[in-house]
Amino acid sequence: MAFPFNALSILDRAQSRTGSSEAEALQHVIARAQRAERLGYRRFWVAEHHGVPGIAGSVPAVLAAAVASATTSIRIGTGGIMLPNHPPLVVAEQAATLNALTGGRFDLGIGRSLGFTAAVRSALRADREAADRFDQDLADLLAFLGGTAPITARPADGGRTPVFVLATGHGVEVAARAGLGVVLGGPALARDPDEVLGRYRQSFRPSRWWAAPHVTVSLNVAVAGTTAAARELLLPEARALAVSRTTGSFPPLDAATVPLTERQEGLVRESLAAAAYGTSDEVEQQLAALHARTAADELMVSGGAHDLEAQAVSDALLAALARPRPAAVGIGG
């Protein structure tokens, strides 16, 4: 069975782990990116989280620059920069600078999420209405990058940086109108991807960034010698996510089994049900089914593991399933 996606990529959220420092968590991100490059992954993206004890990655533009300096060929990107937290011009300048410094290896993934807590939103000076300005902020960002605004982001990019939208239902429509790539994961992927992606493909307008629709699906994936071992690899993050959804605090990843409430146990089961995990053969079948549902161009592996050695094995086993495919249509393909 051939790998069904055109490309295989990684999104690393720079999660911290019990027993190690946050500085070490950032170094682990760079080491994983170097390994992903050797394994043939297409992209390596980093994310934006503020004031979260279990996540060390707060400034994706800075972390992406560090990853870029430690690699030579893999595409580097943000998954994503949360536009409500930043002036569009600043984001455009960061993207243009990173793309110039990396020789055109940079991808700009944009999201519309607000801060994790009220205290974080206050610290960022981002009120709840900031997300409602996403459409206009994105239009301004593209104008700064493309050179059609009253001022142009420097260094001048000319629309060469591929732009993606991390999509909810509304985000898919915004991406289609602007002619941008779309990344679908989480609840939007679990609910009804056929309907959401159908709207995106039908409404897509070609742009200087993408000549045709480009769909990336993102989910947690773990591959191991046994199904049980792969499930164990996903459990620390699933537990941390369950705790965050019920207490508002996302803890560092911990291999220890901690007591959970009945609701939290249910959330762990939901997380595992939304992931792909098992042996190489099992994951290959699960990914084939996912591609049949979405016809996506690209698979982006998300999720973090407490066991770094097992995560490295999983990344290698997944890469072994992939087969070379023609580049997707668009600047960032």
Distance between the termini: 23 Å
What is the fold named in CATH at topology level? TIM Barrel
Provide the number of structural domains: 1
Apparent shape: globular
What's the CATH C level? Alpha Beta
**Order of strands in the sheet with the most strands?**
1-2-3-4-5-6-7-9
- Unreliable stretches, pLDDT < 50, 5 or more residues? none
Proper CATH architecture: Alpha-Beta Barrel
Largest sheet: 8 strands, parallel, barrel
Residue fraction in strands = 15-25%
Number of DSSP E strands = 9
Rounded to an integer in angstroms, the radius of gyration calculated over CA atoms is 19 Å
Detailed description of the structure:
- The chain has one domain: Alpha-Beta Barrel (TIM Barrel).
- Helices cover 45% and strands 15% of the residues.
- The chain is built from twelve helices and nine strands.
- An eight-stranded parallel β-barrel has the order 1-2-3-4-5-6-7-9, surrounded by eight helices.
- Helix 6 runs parallel beside helix 8 and helix 9 crosses helix 10.
- The model has no long low-confidence stretch (mean pLDDT 92).
Task: Write a concise synopsis of the structure shown.
This protein is an alpha/beta fold and 333 residues long. The chain is built from 12 helices and 9 strands. It has helices at 22-39, 60-69, 88-101, 118-123, 134-146, 169-178, 186-191, 193-203, 227-247, 262-273, 280-294, 308-321; strands at residues 7-12, 43-46, 75-82, 106-111, 163-167, 181-185, 215-223, 276-278, 298-302.
List descriptors.
TIM Barrel; 12 helices
